[in-house]
Amino acid sequence: MNEFWQAIESVMTKYSLVTAFALVGIVVWLSYGVSQKVTRGRMHGSAIAILIGLLLAYIGGIATGGTKGLADIECLAGVGIMGGAMLRDLAIVGTAFGVRLEEFLKTGVSGIVSLLTGVLMSFLIGAIIAYVFGYRDPVSMTTIGGGAATYIVGPVTGTALGASSEVIALSVAAGLVKSILVMTATPFVAPLIGLDNPRSALIFGGLMGTTSGVAGGLAATDERLVPYGAMTATFYTGLGCLLGPSVVFITLRSIVGAR
Amino acid sequence: MAIYGTALLSLCLISGLVIGKLIGLAIGIDANVGGVGVAMLLMILAAGKLQTKGLMPKPTENGVLFWTSIYIPIVVAMAASQNVRAAINGGTLAIVVGVVVVIASFALVPLISRIGTTPASASHTKSKGGDV
C-alpha cells in the first residue's frame, strides 16, 4: 500500500503543474456545483472556489509549517507555480484584451486620486492602530502602516527604515489579513458600494491596492471588472514603497518625535 | 496560430515589467512600479492596432483568450498558496489593522466615484473577456 502511494506521489511531484491543473479544476467544478445546488446561484462559484482555496492554504500551512499554503506540500508544489506571480500577471494582462482605451483615460483623474488616497489612508490607519497598541516610535508606526497598504510595502518600508523583525513580521501579517479580507468580502460588499462598472472598479483597485486581493475579489464579483481594478492596483505597491520611507516617515516623525 | 496570440501577450507582459522595473530604478526604489499596468496598456494598444488592420485572426485571438479564460482557476491557485496561517496567527494588531483599513477603503469607493462624474462617464461598457 505504501509503495502504491509512493508511485502516485512521485508522478504527482514530477508533473506538479499538471497535478495543480487537475486539482484546481476539481475545486472549481465542486464550487460551481455548490453554487448552483446549495446557494441557488446566490453565491458565485468563483467566490466559493477562492474560499476553498484559502481554506486549503490554511490546512497546508498547518500541515507543513511553511509560508506558501498548499504549495508547501511537495506533490502540490505546482499550485504555487499556477497561482504565482508569473501566470497570474499573464492572465491579468490577457483580461485587458478587448478593453477600450477610452475607458481607462476617462477615469484617469479619479484613478490617481484613489491611488493617493488609498496609500496615504492605509499608512495613517496602520500608524494610528500601531500607536494604540503601544508601538509609538515613528519607524514601527510607518512600517505597520506600510503593512496596512500591502504585505510588500510593509517589509520594504521596514527594511529601508531599519525596523525590528517583529514589527516587519506584524506588517506582513496585517497585509495578508487585508488581502484575504478583500478576496472574500468584495462580492458581498460590491452591491452596497456601487462596484458594478469599470469606473468604480478602477477606483476600487486604487484604494485597495493589494493585487491578489483585488484580483480575487473582482473575479468573484464580476470577471469583466478585473482589468480595471488590476490596472490601478498595479501602481499601488510601487507608490507605497516610494512614499512610505520618505514622505510618510518624515511626517510621522515630526508628529510623534524621534525616539 | 494560437502561439502568435500567446507570444503577443507574453511580449507585452515582459516589456511592461521591464518598463516598470526601470521606473522603479529611476525613482530609486527596488520595486516594480506599474509594470503590469503598462503591459495592459501595451496589450490594449497592440491588439487594437492589429485588429483594425485585420491581422488578428480567430486562432491568434484564441491564443490570448485561453489565458483570460483560466484567470479564475489561476486566482484559485493563488488563494491556495497564500500564507493564511501567518495572517490568522498574526495577532490582534494585524487583524485589527487589516479589518479597519479594508472597511475604510470600501467606504471610500462610492465617495471617490462621485468625483468628476458626468452622466456619460458613468456608462457601463463591458469588456469581452472570456467566460469560465
Please explain how this structure is put together.
Chain A has 259 residues and is an all-alpha fold. Chain A has helices spanning 2-14, 16-37, 45-64, 78-82, 85-95, 101-106, 108-132, 138-149, 153-161, 165-189, 198-208, 211-221, 226-256. Chain A is globular, with a radius of gyration of 20 Å. Chain A has two domains: 2-83, no CATH class; 102-256, no CATH class. Chain B folds into two domains: 1-81, no CATH class; 83-116. Chain B contains six helices and no strands. The two termini of chain B are 22 Å apart. Chains A and B meet through helix 2, helix 3, helix 4, helix 5 and helix 6 of A and helix 1, helix 2, helix 3, helix 4 and helix 5 of B.
Contiguous low-pLDDT stretches of chain B (5 residues minimum) are 119-132
Count the domains of chain B: 2
Write down the overall geometry of chain B. Answer: extended
Mean pLDDT of chain B: 83
Instruction: Please report the two chains with the greatest interface, counting residues with C-beta closer than 8 angstroms to the partner's C-beta.
Output: A-B, 116 and 88 residues
> Low-confidence stretches of chain A at least 5 residues in length (pLDDT < 50)?
none
Q: Tell me about the largest β-sheet of chain A.
A: none
Q: What general outline of chain A do the C-alpha atoms trace?
A: globular
End-to-end span of chain B in angstroms? 22 Å
Assembly state (oligomeric): heterodimer
What structural class should be given to the helix and strand makeup of chain B? mainly alpha
Distance between the termini of chain A: 63 Å
Number of helices of chain A: 13
**SSE pattern of chain B, N- to C-terminal:** HHHHHH
User: How much helical structure, as a percent, in the residues of chain A?
Assistant: over 70%
